[in-house]
Design brief:
Elements: H1 27-42, E1 49-51, E2 61-65, E3 72-83, E4 87-92, E5 102-107, E6 109-115, E7 121-127, H2 128-141
Antiparallel strand pairs: 1-2, 2-3, 3-6, 4-5, 6-7
Length: 153
């Protein structure tokens, strides 16, 4: 088991956009997936998702808890292809910013595409909290975290 240290607060890696992962899937990519899964499982009572930059790796991958099965999945090079016009506001927190909570508006559902850990193309439509997790983790891959983003005046 490889539980990695989660980068906190003002770690510069949390503000940088990530590089895409090129197929075929390498042993390094598989190891990153295992590290993300192990680290998320270790923190399962505190969060439902973990992006690679949160453990210091600037690659487009995140781990997530499948809220239906309880299993931890991996999404590589995720992107949102379509999303709900209905916007829902809900409080969120983040493993990299422990103790902070912020009310954030996000689409009710999203249709996401990317790769699974075998390099196979996948599409998944998620809604509610599962969609919120995906949108939150993709923010991390883009070097953003809306839990700490200040409103512009």
């Amino acid at each position: 088991m490889a539980v990695k240290k989660i980068h906190l607060f003002n770690s510069p890696v949390l503000t940088l956009p990530c590089r895409g992962i090129v197929a075929p899937i390498t042993a390094e990519t598989e190891q990153l997936a295992l590290d993300l899964k192990d680290t998320l499982e270790h923190h399962i009572k505190k969060g439902y998702g973990l992006a690679a930059p949160q453990i210091g790796i600037l690659q487009r991958m995140f781990a997530f808890v499948n809220l239906r099965t309880g299993n931890i999945g991996i999404f590589i090079n995720p992107k949102c292809d379509q999303f709900s016009p209905n916007i829902v506001e809900q409080r969120e927190s983040c493993l990299s910013y422990p103790g902070l909570w912020k009310s954030i508006k996000r689409p009710e559902w999203g249709l996401f595409s990317g790769l699974d850990i075998t390099g196979k193309e996948m599409k998944i439509k998620v809604e509610g909290l599962q969609a919120r997790i995906f949108f939150h983790e993709i923010d991390h891959l883009n070097g953003q975290c809306r839990v700490v983003t200040k409103k512009r005046r």
